[in-house]
């Protein structure tokens, strides 16, 4: 999920390896739009990057190799948070696939999705450009225009990896 736990921010939990606290960096006024359990991270504060570094260091220690980051690509597009997390992953020295997806996509036009994808494509391995599919055909068909524009913009290709790592699966990049 996007950012930092709202609970950690309210409790002003310590950020591992620093003298800072979650309350120093949690932007309560910028919650994930569809789940209020996380808020954006203030990346203008040095502790913002330190927070992501500590989290991804822990993931690397656990042997995690796939990260799906929700609520950062859509109406809640957050290039700074995407880049900060990509940087934190790189700093671990452990290969991890970094996949992002929207929290919501009310913006709706595929042109906006293409623009967002082009802005961050060198920082992620995969991205999903549409919201979840639910149980109606109109929900599924609404994704076709976005998929068409992304294909025309050469953003949907088999095993394209703009970060330069080898992938053994089809990826939407």
UniProtKB/TrEMBL annotation:
<dbReference type="InterPro" id="IPR013785">
    <property type="entry name" value="Aldolase_TIM"/>
</dbReference>
<dbReference type="InterPro" id="IPR002241">
    <property type="entry name" value="Glyco_hydro_27"/>
</dbReference>
<dbReference type="Pfam" id="PF16499">
    <property type="entry name" value="Melibiase_2"/>
</dbReference>
<dbReference type="InterPro" id="IPR017853">
    <property type="entry name" value="GH"/>
</dbReference>
<keyword id="KW-0378">Hydrolase</keyword>
<protein>
    <recommendedName>
        <fullName>Alpha-galactosidase</fullName>
    </recommendedName>
</protein>
<dbReference type="GO" id="GO:0005975">
    <property type="term" value="P:carbohydrate metabolic process"/>
</dbReference>
<keyword id="KW-0326">Glycosidase</keyword>
<dbReference type="GO" id="GO:0004553">
    <property type="term" value="F:hydrolase activity, hydrolyzing O-glycosyl compounds"/>
</dbReference>
<comment type="similarity">
    <text>Belongs to the glycosyl hydrolase 27 family.</text>
</comment>
């Amino acid at each position: 999920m996007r950012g930092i736990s709202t609970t950690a921010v309210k409790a002003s939990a310590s950020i591992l390896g620093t003298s800072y606290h979650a309350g120093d960096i949690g932007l309560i006024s910028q919650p994930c739009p569809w789940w209020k359990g996380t808020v954006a991270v203030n990346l203008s504060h040095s502790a913002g990057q330190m927070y992501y570094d500590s989290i991804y260091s822990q993931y690397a220690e656990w042997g995690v190799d796939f990260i799906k980051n929700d609520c950062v690509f859509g109406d809640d597009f957050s290039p700074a948070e995407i880049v900060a997390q990509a940087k934190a992953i790189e700093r671990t020295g452990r290969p991890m696939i970094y996949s992002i997806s929207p929290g919501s996509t009310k913006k709706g036009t595929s042109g906006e999705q293409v623009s967002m994808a082009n802005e961050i494509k060198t920082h992620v391995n995969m991205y999903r450009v549409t919201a979840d599919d639910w149980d109606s055909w109109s929900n599924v068909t609404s994704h076709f225009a976005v998929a068409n524009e992304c294909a025309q913009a050469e953003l949907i290709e088999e095993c394209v990896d703009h970060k330069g790592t080898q992938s053994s699966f089809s990826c939407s990049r």
